[in-house]
Design a protein that fits this description.
By secondary structure, the protein is mainly beta. It is built from 1 helix and 15 strands, in the order E-E-E-E-E-E-E-H-E-E-E-E-E-E-E-E.
Length: 247
Amino acid sequence: MKTRTLLLACVFSLVGTSLPAQPVPGSPLAGLDQLKDFETRRASSSDPNWRNGNGDARPIGPGKTLTLAELDGPGSIAHIWFTIAHDAPFYSRLLTLRMYWDGEEQPSVECPVGDFFGIGHGVDKSFVSLPIKVSSDGRGRNCYWPMPFRKSARITVTNESDQKCHAFYFYIDWQKHKSLPKSTAYFHATYRQEYPCVMGRNYLLADLEGRGHYVGTIQSVYLVSPGWYGEGDDFFFIDGAQEPQLR
């Protein structure tokens, strides 16, 4: 029996012109005793009437787009948090997150909300990693990827379902800097899926251009027939190499 497989991947990368070596961090609390040369700021879903109101979420109609933040740089996003109330089954696959740096027309980040926060197929599950932490059975989504920008940042969420998103709660914590080093790289994330996967052919995770760091992939697999899809290898072809340098 042939195994039919759905493969999905959200690929993360940092792209820039120059990336100097960085020291390996020790304690996650290291540096708290050092004064920082930036202002801490936040864009959030808090009630505009912050003195007396408590309407701390935003609805998103079917097919509509909510702008979460429009930030003036130089700056760097340090933390993103979402909690969502949506009646559509598998809603986190039906909400598309996009991020635009420095006025670009095409987003540097374009990914379903659920996959961006580590869990595919639109389900709510807890997930723990260094850059992504999802708690409360999948309802509390946190991201700690550093996301710098020199001129501006715009973040949106589009409701691709035919049902209303009743409440979208969010924090976007960021740092306002005087300037960024020339070596600072931009954060990118892209999503792709394939169904059914073609047997005997490698599944393409990403085809990236530019100087940068590949920093990770979330891959979600759903089997629709018995068997295990795996035992395949991963291959990294860097700078046009004919043989993979990593395999």
